[in-house]
Structures are given as structure tokens and as C-alpha cells.
TrEMBL record:
Gene3D superfamilies: 3.30.70.20. Residues 1-29 form the 4Fe-4S ferredoxin-type domain. This is Ferredoxin. The keyword Nucleotidyltransferase does not apply. It holds the Pfam family Fer4_15. Ferredoxins are iron-sulfur proteins that transfer electrons in a wide variety of metabolic reactions. It comes from Actinomycetospora aeridis.
Amino acid sequence: MKINVDWDRCTGMGMCESLAPDVFEVDDDGSLIVHAEEVPEGMESDVREAVAACPTEALSLEGE
Ligand code: SF4
């Protein structure tokens, strides 16, 4: 399962980081860093929650 980010939509709010901190990180400048292109094993539900919680719908999953 691959993580897609619509960079035009991401506003660096960090909801994704709070739900799946091993995968998503917002740096001091408010820029999102995605640590894994593919969802790591065992992190599927956290990542799904993060995708659903993104207020700007910037995140999506490919290969669901
Ligand atoms: S929750 Fe959405 S808008 Fe906020 S940092 Fe994550 S991807 Fe970007």
C-alpha cells in the first residue's frame, strides 16, 4: 500500500503526525516529511486513521 501526498493541499497541520508519528513528521518549518513511501507492516490502521484525519484531504492510499 503506497502513500500519496497532494503537496498543494498539505498545510502542515500535523494531524497525520499525531496519529502515525513513525511515518509522518512535520518539521519546524511546517513542511511534511513522509518517512515511508510504502505503509510499513503493522502500521496500516494508524496510517489509515491519519489519512482519514487530514483536514485538507491531502493524503490518499494507493493499492487498497
Ligand atoms: S494532516 Fe494533512 S495537511 Fe496536515 S501535515 Fe498531514 S498531510 Fe499535511
